[in-house]
Design brief:
6-stranded mixed beta sheet; Glucose Oxidase, domain 1; alpha/beta; 9 strands; Znf_RING; transmembrane; metal-binding; Herpes Virus-1; transmembrane helix; membrane; single chain
């Protein structure tokens, strides 16, 4: 078995069939590479590329000659559209061969070609070249063939190794896992989209004043300072037409002094000392301590509208509809 190295795979994978009849490229008549002594002695005009009745794939073949290598590859590509690969054999390495990364194999833009390129030891290469020439010129080898115009050819098959086995069980498990991940992803996306639409609907109804925020169970719903500052401050009077008749602050239980105490009036008309009610509304609750009415304006939208709030609002709404 020849000692062969791969110089360029051209996308060929392990297990791919790379085979064909050995073929030396047809050089141009004025090519200086035709005078190399290692080339086959048979007439190139009578080579395989000229036989129109043969439809076999071919494997290109030539010695490694730095000044001619590109021409060998170009001619093999141009005169044989069905070329499956190309072999170079070394002239100065008989019993060994340089590695694929060795600078010995430099000078060729391998990626310019769409077929695999291999290197071979000089010993095997010279043997194949001798057989190639012998079979191309000696028709006595074909005594048992009725077609006297035929020629014997060398058939070459490149062993690219066993194909990578399909990990049947692992492949199946990966497919199942991918399907599950896809289903979970789509389910999660659908749920997030549904929850987003419900939160948006709840915000819209809260801003329209259709929802009782306190009934939603939002913990520590308080009154922001910017809203609290809009509640009027006025001197305490005993005018019966001015809100409820309160004589004292229900938080500190101190009596108001007529025209001497400044009170803050909530939207429900209850009044308190500013120092008492401001801290209560800002830190404890948005409800009036006396009547439990919300001090928040209609349409106020708190930041605590979560998915849990949405679920509670839907539950309360269904309870009312029963």
């Amino acid at each position: 078995q020849p000692n062969v190295i791969t110089l360029f795979t051209a996308g060929a994978n392990s297990g791919d069939d790379i085979m064909g009849t050995l073929h030396f490229p047809e050089l141009l008549a004025n090519s200086r590479c035709r005078n190399i002594s290692e080339l086959p002695t048979t007439s190139l005009v009578d080579d395989l590329s000229k036989t129109s009745n043969v439809q076999l794939h071919v494997i290109g073949f030539a010695p490694w000659v730095p000044d001619c290598n590109t021409e060998f590859l170009d001619r093999a590509r141009d005169d044989r559209a069905d070329i499956s690969g190309f072999f170079f054999y070394t002239l100065d390495y008989i019993d060994s061969i340089p590695g694929a990364g060795n600078h010995y194999w430099g000078g060729i833009k391998l990626r310019d070609y769409n077929f695999p390129i291999y290197g071979m030891r000089g010993r095997e290469g010279a043997f194949l070249m001798d057989r190639y020439t012998e079979y191309a010129t000696n028709k006595s080898l074909l005594d048992d063939i009725h077609n006297t115009t035929g020629r014997a050819r060398i058939f070459v098959e490149v062993g690219t190794g066993r194909p990578a086995p399909l990990p049947g069980l692992w492949l199946f498990l990966l497919i199942v896992l991918a399907v599950l991940v896809l289903i979970l992803g789509l389910t999660s996306l659908s749920m997030h989209l549904l929850q987003y639409r419900r939160r948006r609907s709840l915000r819209r109804r809260v801003m329209a004043g259709e929802v009782d925020l306190e009934a939603l169970g939002i913990k520590r719903l308080t009154v922001p300072r910017r809203i609290l500052d809009k509640f009027p401050l006025r001197p305490f009077t005993l005018d019966k037409d001015d809100g409820y008749s309160q004589q004292s602050c229900s938080i500190c239980l101190e009596d108001f002094v007529v025209d001497g105490t400044t009170v803050r009036e909530l939207p429900c008309k209850h009044i308190y000392h500013p120092a008492c009610i401001d801290g209560f509304l800002e830190q404890q609750s948005s409800l009036c301590p006396l009547c439990k009415s919300s001090a928040l304006p209609k349409g106020y939208l708190p930041k605590q509208l979560t998915n849990r709030t949405v679920r509670r609002e839907r539950y309360l709404r269904r309870q009312r509809e029963r």
